[in-house]
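This entry is listed as follows:

___
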Amino acid sequence: MHSRPSFPSHPAEPVRRAEMTLRLSEFEVPPMQDLLLVGKKAPIGPEAVRRMVDAVSPQQYEIVHIEHDIFEAVVLKKSLLKFLPREKLLAIVLEEGARLATENTVVKAQVNIVVQVNRAVDL
């Protein structure tokens, strides 16, 4: 004897989900750029840069003294470190900056970091 398949009159409710995409990026305040690479023989040194940025944007920048073939220091906007760890940010910036800078230059950079978050929420 064959059993008959059963079909309930009220099937279980389907699972409904929603996905959300959120993109966050830093709000930029002119005229300061996000980052300066200070060459070892640049006409302006890291401490002079510190005084300049403190006058324009107090406590918003950090000076990182580094051991590097070309650069003596990196002046970076502290808020960037909320988006990316310092080591990862500096590794990328120094690699790219070294391609176009010399020891005599100060290179400014605009850094745009976009964080993308995808989350599924049960409904």
About this structure: The chain is about 20% helix and 30% strand. The chain has a mean pLDDT of 85. The longest strand covers residues 17-25.
